[in-house]
Amino acid sequence: MLHRFAKFVAGCTVLLVLAGSLVTSTDSGLSVPDWPTTYGWNMFTFPPSKWVGGILYEHGHRLIASTVGFFTIILAAWLWMSEPRRWMKWLGVAALGAVIAQGVLGGLTVMFFLPAPISTAHAGLAEIFFCMTVAIALFTSPRWIDGGQLVDDAELRTFATTTTILIYCQILVGATMRHTGAGLAIPDFPLMFGHLWPTHWDAKIAVHFAHRAGAVLVAMAVLATATAVFRRTSLSELRRPAVLLVVIAAMVWGYHALDLPHRMTVAGMRALVDSHAPYGPLVFMTVCVAGIFLHVPEIVLIAIGGVLFGSVHAFAYGWVASLIGATSTFLLVRYVARDYFQRALRGPLVRLRALDERLERNGFWTVLVLRLVLFLAPPLNWALGATRVRVPHYVAGTALGVVPGIATTVFFADSIANRPPGSDVLSPGVLLGAVLVIALVATATFAARRLGGRPPAPSA
Amino acid sequence: MRVRTMWIGILGMALAVSITACGGKKDDLDAPDAAGGGGPKVDAATAGNIEGVVSFDGVAPKNAEISMNADPVCVKANGTPQTQETYEVADGKLANVFVYVKDGLGSFSYDPPAGPITIDQKGCRYHPHVFGIRIGQELDIINSDPTLHNIHALPKGNAEFNTGQPIQGMKTMHVFNNKEVMVPFKCDVHGWMNAYLGVLDHPYFQTTGADGKFSLKGLPPGTYTIEAWHEKAGTQTAQVTIAAKETKPANFTFKAPATATD
Fold first, then answer.
1. Mind listing the pLDDT tens digit for each residue in A129-156?
2. Are B45 and B165 in contact (CB under 8 A)?
3. What CATH number is associated with residue B9?
């Protein structure tokens, strides 16, 4: 129970760190000028109707922080009372001390108008506190307490420690860059002012350059650590995080290299579509069809369509693309590569084989219900091609079965992204979308029951 | 134990120094001196004027669009779409340019300011957007909106302040003690709200209106450096010499940047 609570606190801390980073990203740090009060109100009685503009982020961060602080008090007390390991008791106290210090730093940075040293210290201590909550969760886990398989490898320890220190230094340099406004001190990437090395220097360029150089160092350290883990141990408990570490490093690198912060906005995507008009819909439909072949979650692509084109157009484009994609994959399996897919899709096929007779006899209704329940699930697209269902039945069942899913998705996405200016997120349109989603899930569940109770069990 | 005590001491001192350094940097201010250099008064019988027009040459860059969705009160007050006030150009004339005597006044003393200057937060915009004030003159900050604003001044030569005004009709007073062109204001609640204030030790300043015109009246005879300041287009200066009772022109033309985007 203590372990679960510790995991819960660590999870809440992730939210807290994200909320804190949003405060800086939205430049909302001083939108509440006073501390610990909020515009003179007690923090906990500040009316939600006044959480407008930057206040939403700053006040929200304070509330989440207070909640995590409260949870940390409970965690520290719990550890103190029930934990036999003396150092664990003190780890709980240290975490509590860290979260209190973090609150004071947050208050100081507001009162002194966001001085970079205090804001950077606030960001740096946040990561330390997060690591403390994760450590408490790890040290209270049953496998840790039982001992499990111990790895006592000095070289691996050196790799991991060095990488951890490098990552933390990189976080501090990154925080300094953010809080001194040096994020765009070097405007191009990967070159620097068109060269491999900055052509001129000032304090901001130096900080920015240090962050880039740090990224290279961290990337090398991460790769070296992951390689060392794979060479020196077969423990999945170490191999999995090593892979995750490399994936996260690659994601962070790709995020900046592809300039995603500017492209992944509704305005950025709309500008991209507009720049390709009148081919925008064609590009969108091609991406949707490709998505079906590549197993990209189709619901996400269609939702993006809802944001970009509005409900009606996105529904039409999405429906046509889904039908083309689903039929293409079906025909590919049926007439080109049936044997290969029968081998490759043994798992899904086993489940569908029980339905094969029904698919042959009553193909339209069965496909319709499968579509209602599973929408455009990638295995379904491939697997149905290897069954005895007739092509017209498959196409008709798919054409009708995907309608509710596509309609709900585009409507929901459209109502959130393109809601009237000034309207709340919980506008009537969004609520209607939510009701539609619930109705869809209920219909799908009902249809699944009518089809034959629970899904067929694997028979071979 | 001694080593630990020493480390604790060093850390404590470092924290104290950093807090002092962060907190004390803007409060070393001189006493306000609204009257100017303390010298003779300007003789109204010989005073002249400098008048002119600020023009804009070329196509004005499109002002950045702003979304007020974060606050329904602001949307209700304005409708959509809304843009920043960066380039206010009409018939080739540029508004919101702060024109002032930068140099040449010597040590004249002036009558105290007539009354307070007001900046109003109305419709989730600052009114005025660009304006001037004299050292020691009262700045009344008013919130006419039925929503919260914080007015956050980011001066370099005066004390930074960040005042919350959560209630409609609230009024706060502030005084600037040092000459500074310009002091930016921002609202951190509504990120699009910005204004600029020129703080001067003399009364010879004006902000251009929609017709681009300005007039600096009552100047003693002499040679002056006149500066025109615009928030995006930068500054321009002109040397103007006026004799007794003379009115001389000083016109400025800002050119469109090479890439007409803002």
1. 999 999 999 999 998 888 767 788 899 9
2. no
3. 2.60.40.420
In 3-state terms, what secondary structure has residue B250? coil
Each residue's pLDDT tens digit, B17-37: 444 444 433 444 444 555 556
Q: Give mean pLDDT, residues A348-358.
A: 66
Neighbours of A216 (CB within 10 A): 10
ipTM of the shown complex = 0.77
Residue A127 has pLDDT above 90, yes or no: yes
Let me know if residue B260 belongs to a domain: no
Of B22, B164, B166, the CB nearest to A118: B22
B261 located within any domain: no
State whether the Cα torsion B130-B131-B135-B138 is positive or negative. negative
Give the span between the Cα atoms of B228 and A190, in whole angstroms: 39
- Taking an 8 Å Cβ-Cβ cutoff, which residues of chain A contact chain B? 26-34, 39-40, 50, 52-56, 58, 108, 111-113, 115, 117-118, 421-424
CA nearest to A117, candidates A128, A109, A125: A109
- Beta-carbon-side half-sphere exposure of residue A78 (alpha carbons within 13 Å): 17
Distance CA B129, CA B185 (A): 9
* Any domain includes B262: no
Closest among B212, B230, B209, B222 to B248, alpha carbons compared: B222
How far is residue A167's CA from residue A173's CA, in Å, rounded to a whole number?
Answer: 10
Q: Could you tell me if B54 and B99 are in contact, meaning their C-beta atoms sit under 8 angstroms apart?
A: yes
SS3 B103: strand
pTM of the model: 0.70
**Strand B138-143 relative to strand B117-122, pairing:** parallel
Residue B183 corresponds to which amino acid?
Answer: V
Residue A33 to residue B73, Cβ atoms within 8 A = no
Which residues of chain A lie closer than 8 angstroms to B15, CB-CB? none
DSSP A143-203: HHHH--S----HHHHHHHHHHHHHHHHHHHHHHHHHHTT-TTSS-SSSSBTTBSS-SS--H
Range of the domain at B172: 2-255
Burial class (CB in 10 A: 0-12, 13-18, 19+), B127: middle
What whole-number distance in Å separates Cα of residue A246 and Cα of residue A161? 16
Residue A40 is nearest to which of B23, B147, B166, comparing CB atoms?
B166
Convert B166-217 into a string of H (helix), E (strand) and C (coil): CCCCCEEEEECCCCEEEEEEECCCCCCCEEEEEEECCCCEEECCCCCEEEEE
Task: Give the contacts of A350 (CB within 8 A, at least 6 positions apart).
Answer: A458, A459, A460
Task: Say if the Cβ atoms of B164 and A422 lie within 8 Å.
Answer: no
Rounded to an integer, what is the distance from CA A295 to the centroid of its chain?
A: 18
Instruction: Please compute the mean of the pLDDT values over residues B51-64 and round it to a whole number.
Output: 93
Helices and strands per DSSP (H, E), number in chain A:
20, 0
Which residues, 6 or more positions from A359, have their beta carbon under 8 angstroms from its beta carbon? A352, A366, A367, A384, A387, A388, A389, A393
**Host H or E run for residue B141:** strand B138-143
Check CB contact under 8 Å for A33 and B68.
no
**Angle at CA A373, nearest 5°, toward A370 and A378?**
70
| Count of domains forming chain B | 1
CA A426/CA A423 separation, integer angstroms: 8
Q: How far is B241 from chain A (nearest CA, A)?
A: 40
Is position B32 within any domain? yes
Cβ–Cβ below 8 Å for A113 and B162: yes
